[in-house]
Amino acid sequence: MRILGQRLRTLRLEKKMRQEDLAREIGISKSAIGMYERGEREPSLILLREIADFFRVSADFLLGRSDRASFPSNLRRKSDPPGADGNLKNFLTRKDLHWDQIPLAKKELRAVKELMEVVVRERSAHYEVNPDHIKKADRRNKRG
Q: How far apart are CA 86 and CA 55, in angstroms?
């Protein structure tokens, strides 16, 4: 099961995590992570699923049965809340957002979205960004 260990280590390092960090996140010992990475021990099926979910990859990828590290971006688990894909824009569509337990109104969330669009527009000068995304945001703001 050496491929599992290699992929686990690679995924952990990509997230700039130490073994201790990963162990704490998934609720096991640091030594267990080390043994998985060295191929000295295999995780249970339940733990394998937890590891796959944490890294947002399939168990088949971890086991070496697939070389596709993640699910296609247009697929999402039904149980995933908006924004689980890491996209702040999607996250801000959630109805249960709060700031220190103070609920945020639609108007306040709209202000946050507009602020982020300004930030993205300014940063796009330094990164290669598809200009269509910015044009769509501008059209939405004019309507809104």
A: 12
